[in-house]
Amino acid sequence: MRAAVLEEHGEPLAVKEVDYPEPEPDQVIVETEACGICRSDWHAWQGDWSWIGASVPEGQILGHEPAGVVSAVGEDIETLQEGDRVAVPFHLGDGTCSHCREGRANNCETVIPLGLSGIAPGAFAEAFPVREADYNCVKLPDDVDFTEMAGLGCRFMTAYHALADRADLRPGDWVAVHGCGGVGLSAIHIADALGAHPIAVDVREDKLERARELGASATVNAAEADNTAQEVKALAGGGADVSIDALGIAETCQNSIGSLGTRGTHVQVGLTTGEEEGQIEVPVDVMTMQELDFHGSFGMPLVRYEELFKLIGEGTLEPSKIIGETLSLEEAPETLSSMDSYETVGIPVITEF
Ligand SMILES: [Zn+2]
Ligand SMILES: [Zn+2]
Predict the structure, then answer these.
(1) I need a surface site. Which of 2, 112, 160, 181 has the fewest CB within 10 A?
(2) How many Å lie between the centroid of ligand 2 and the Cα of residue 305?
(3) How far, in Å, are 135, 168, 227, 248, 315 from residue 303 at the CA level?
(4) Which residues pair with residue 31 across a beta bridge?
(5) Distance, CA 338 to ligand 2 centroid (Å)?
(6) Per residue in 120-165, pLDDT tens?
(7) 3-state DSSP assignment of residue 298
């Protein structure tokens, strides 16, 4: 089968023939129908995350935002069969630790990230295996198509968990979103749909334009602003109730915290780059005196899909709005490389394998 392989960090992915996977007893094989290309793929490709022991090995097949059809099942599989339409959240849990038993695969003690670990080849391929598949596969409702589901495997669901669960967003809240890539634009749309007032911050006018189309009440171009955090605060009538760093560089993290009003909540969604190596200075005294919260947010508990599908089914949320271009597997290396300059608008999704 064809797959896009990371042969050397920073060099274009190699699209080539590899062996078709065989399922282990706990696994299913999923034929990929759609898979998003994400900033996390770009980080992995750069060789980032050695500082958290998570550098992706060379030889890896990337791809962690897939939707597809089950094509083979291992002998221990009980709830899935060939032909099932599934999405696979990127955080593959073991299904047995205390967090998994609460439905929180995103907090699993032995989590394996799909496509970002040597033992979990990803979905930039015609097919891929899923560990503990009974636990980890999410069956798709009939009314959600594969392409929109690709965004739900990572960025859309990540934004939903960050806002609805970690920030406990309420209607009427002012929400600053720093960084309007896939997860940031998802957060804008979700905040708007849940009755909050999103303020989009980015350095590119085309991304801010897209944010306005998705419901941003206001936008700030951080490349032109004298003081980005102060501008956001003024727009939010004194300070945002919730602010998200959807990128993961020092500037967006610090601007996000600086955008908050008293007792506001910062949610860190973006992971850092080789520039920060996981360390960013934050204004501890201000955070203490203004009683600001700093929350991390990672993926989404599997038990939250039911609510997400309900909101999609009734039309409140439309993940298809975040999809940027669709492309072929052969075009994936070039699209990934172009993320160096933050050129992609919306979520690029591979739909031809
Ligand atoms: Zn992703
Ligand atoms: Zn677990």
Answers:
(1) 2
(2) 17
(3) 11, 17, 40, 26, 20
(4) 69, 127
(5) 35
(6) 999 999 999 999 999 999 999 888 889 888 878 799 999 999 999 9
(7) coil
